[in-house]
Amino acid sequence: MFETGFLRKAVPVALAFIVLALWPLWAPAFYAELAMKIMILGIFALSLELLVGQTGLVCFGQAAFFGIGAYAAALMTPQSEAASLWFTAAVAVAAAGGYALLVGALSLRTKGVYFIMITLAFAQMAFFVAHDTDWVGGSDGIYLYFKPDASILGWKPFDLDQGHTLYWLVWACLLGVAAFWSVMLRSRFGRALAGIKVNEQRMRAAGFATYPYKLAVFVFSAMLAGLAGYLFAVKDGVVNPELMSWHQSGAVLIMIILGGLGHLRGALIGALAFTLLQELFQSQAVFGSFAKHWQLMLGLAIIAFVALLPRGLIGLVTPKEGA
To answer: Which residues cross the membrane (predicted)?
Structure first.
């Protein structure tokens, strides 16, 4: 029974990753770029799903960690030469995790709406620091003039400026995050997170110190968001304070709700659906001049999805059991 259920869930995911890997070989450049954007947002959505869907911690400041990862990539890339991919990526992830350690140490002592507001406050602090500080570009942001160098002790396994190499790097990161995410949730640590979500007081009564678990998952979630921000900066070649705005935190929260809370596949489906809906409603070829009101159409569409599919889009795939 377990093997049958596992295969029923794993096979479509494996096929989707295979299609993604082959996608840039035949798809037009625009659609390859769009797929890369969706994969990066998929990592971002998985980072928040780990908090909201698996631990029950509704964080409204996830964009801060995403933005920190992006800014780290830009600040460590000089205008005259490429910086090391491995070093800059590690620093970006560590910077996001370090800020999360500070935020989590304080905010996790609260619950409910207070936790939501404190995480939002810390995210807005990061936003205004980036917005009002000249050395990080202020409101104009920073440009990356070179993609990172993947050399290891003089050996260069791949070049991000060549072909679809960056696309496949993003694909490999998404695959690694999804695989590790899935394995971790089936471990003792993951079971503890599930228990905290269901009944934290009972977990404490059973002898679990829940605070370290919540702090650990908060930091790990931020590190994943930092990785997504780093990849986003490398892809676009520019970062600005809007990456840290509360709109971005709200957008990723909508993604995981749209896809279906509590599901790994739901976070990925939500990132896909949200991005495609944005592209659709912004298309002047489809909606003409009314495309300038795309936020209105997107909002109405999301309301309709939530009303008709309370379990999210994943409910269309698994109507009776979870992922």
So the answer is: 6-26, 38-65, 85-106, 113-130, 165-185, 211-232, 252-277, 298-317
